[in-house]
């Protein structure tokens, strides 16, 4: 069976740095931090009182009030970015077979705010079971893909992947495989998350996973810095339209890049901690290169998982050095989570977009908030500290890893005719 080529023909983003792809990319290039004190609830009693929230979002700019009340925020975010990506790819304008367009989405948690609110309301009541009739449809993670398909009439494969912080990248890999196997022509993929809630912040605080740098939120996410103390929780969404190459070419679609491989592995080590030697990260990067026949020397940029945790950053760098050998010193490596925070199940989507835009513009976004070198890291590596760097980016790799030991990598390249 001849496998199809798969390309990117549309993008959508709603992030702590901006509410469109262009705003998001400008924020990345300019090294803007999206972190600030939490506004979604009173966080004064929490160990962490800041997050990377989406700014200036009003659901009534996108939905009528009745419709918005039927959706958790993570589904609203999904709908907004899917609309931007669908418009960008001209899927509505062009006469495409709707039976051949699918939606494969990712979310690590789903409707956390809805679940929290309904449980609190019940606990504060008189014991009578009064629940919102939309409680379950608002909460379940798969509903985001359902909403997107219902709005646009897309009748192809439709589901949501759940693998913690690797969820959106898992969705992209599944979408890529469905298209290259000939099971769809176009798939709307990506991920969304809205976990900046009392339960979300409190839960991650209990795990001691979050930075507690309340006196300086904008510098709290500092991957690879000696004084990093945990990740910064983010929210938002990213959408990527994947399309079979000949199908895209036939309709004259704009092509951003080609996706040439996607791989997955497991640490098989610990529920929250990465393997200390980066064994799973090594395996997934080795496999993503091998599956596409890409030599390590062909990769120009790695958008790393890089969450700003003491163990995670070190293990990923160890894996990169194992996979790339001496070429590791020729790479640009950066963690855009230094600016966006960690969007959990949506992280892979917006970081894939950052990788695609790096290819488009030959600019590598920075790892901001570097103040003190970590003596445990190899100082010869180019971690793109504090300022974006211009270089030709023909091939970009994007890593996302999740609790449970889930590892995912996707590989993008400039389109070759």
Automatic annotation (TrEMBL):
GO biological process, one term: fatty acid biosynthetic process
The reaction(s) this protein catalyses: a fatty acyl-[ACP] + malonyl-[ACP] + H(+) = a 3-oxoacyl-[ACP] + holo-[ACP] + CO2; (9Z)-hexadecenoyl-[ACP] + malonyl-[ACP] + H(+) = 3-oxo-(11Z)-octadecenoyl-[ACP] + holo-[ACP] + CO2
Pfam families: ketoacyl-synt, Ketoacyl-synt_C
Domain of life assignment: Bacteria
Cellular compartments per GO CC: cytosol
Catalytic site: 165
Keywords assigned by UniProt, alphabetized: Acyltransferase, Fatty acid biosynthesis, Fatty acid metabolism, Lipid biosynthesis, Lipid metabolism, Transferase
Pathway participation: Lipid metabolism; fatty acid biosynthesis
Its EC number(s): 2.3.1.179
GO molecular-function term, one example from the UniProt record: 3-oxoacyl-[acyl-carrier-protein] synthase activity
Transmembrane segments: none
InterPro entries for this protein: 3-oxoacyl-ACP_synth-2, Beta-ketoacyl_synthase, Ketoacyl_synth_AS, Ketoacyl_synth_C, Ketoacyl_synth_N, PKS_Beta-ketoAc_synthase_dom, Thiolase-like
Broadest EC class assigned to this enzyme: transferase
Domain Ketosynthase family 3 (KS3): 3-414
SMART domains given in the database record: PKS_KS
Family: Belongs to the thiolase-like superfamily. Beta-ketoacyl-ACP synthases family.
Chain's role: Involved in the type II fatty acid elongation cycle. Catalyzes the elongation of a wide range of acyl-ACP by the addition of two carbons from malonyl-ACP to an acyl acceptor. Can efficiently catalyze the conversion of palmitoleoyl-ACP (cis-hexadec-9-enoyl-ACP) to cis-vaccenoyl-ACP (cis-octadec-11-enoyl-ACP), an essential step in the thermal regulation of fatty acid composition.
Name by which UniProt lists this protein: 3-oxoacyl-[acyl-carrier-protein] synthase 2
């Amino acid at each position: 069976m001849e496998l199809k080529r798969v390309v990117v023909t549309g993008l959508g983003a709603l992030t702590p740095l901006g509410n469109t792809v262009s705003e998001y990319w400008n924020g990345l290039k300019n090294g803007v931090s999206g972190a600030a004190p939490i506004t979604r609830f009173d966080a004064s009693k929490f160990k962490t009182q800041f997050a990377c929230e989406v700014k200036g979002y009003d659901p009534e700019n996108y939905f009528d009030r009745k419709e918005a009340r039927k959706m958790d925020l993570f589904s609203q975010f999904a709908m907004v970015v899917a609309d931007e990506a669908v418009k960008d790819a001209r899927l509505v304008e062009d006469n495409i077979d709707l039976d051949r367009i699918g939606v494969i989405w990712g979310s690590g948690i789903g409707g956390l705010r809805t679940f929290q609110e309904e449980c609190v309301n019940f606990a504060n009541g008189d014991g009578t079971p009064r629940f919102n009739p939309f409680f379950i449809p608002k909460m379940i993670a798969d509903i985001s893909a359902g909403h997107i398909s219902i709005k646009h009439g897309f009748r192809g494969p439709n589901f949501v992947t759940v693998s913690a912080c690797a969820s959106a990248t898992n969705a992209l890999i599944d979408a890529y495989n469905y298209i290259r196997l000939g099971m769809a022509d176009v798939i709307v993929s990506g991920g969304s998350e809205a976990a900046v809630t009392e339960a979300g912040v409190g839960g991650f605080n209990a795990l001691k996973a979050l930075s507690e740098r309340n006196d300086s939120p904008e510098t709290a996410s500092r991957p690879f810095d000696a004084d990093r103390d945990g990740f910064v929780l983010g929210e938002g969404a990213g959408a990527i339209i994947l399309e079979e190459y000949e199908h895209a070419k036939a309709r004259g679609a704009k092509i951003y890049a080609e996706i040439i491989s996607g791989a997955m592995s497991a640490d098989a080590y610990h529920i929250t901690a990465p393997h200390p030697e980066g064994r799973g990260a090594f395996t997934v990067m080795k496999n993503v290169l091998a599956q596409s026949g890409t030599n390590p020397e062909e990769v120009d940029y790695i958008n790393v998982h890089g969450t700003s945790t003491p163990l995670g950053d070190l293990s990923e760098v160890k894996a990169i050095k194992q996979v790339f050998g001496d070429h590791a010193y020729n790479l640009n490596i950066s963690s855009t989570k230094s600016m966006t925070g960690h969007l959990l199940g949506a992280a892979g989507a917006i970081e894939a977009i950052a990788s695609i835009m790096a290819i488009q513009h030959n600019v590598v976004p920075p790892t901001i908030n570097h103040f003190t070198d970590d003596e445990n890291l190899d100082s010869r590596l180019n971690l793109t500290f504090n300022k974006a760097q211009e270089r030709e980016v023909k091939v970009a790799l994007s890593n996302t890893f999740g609790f449970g030991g889930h590892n995912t990598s996707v590989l993008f390249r400039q389109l070759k005719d």
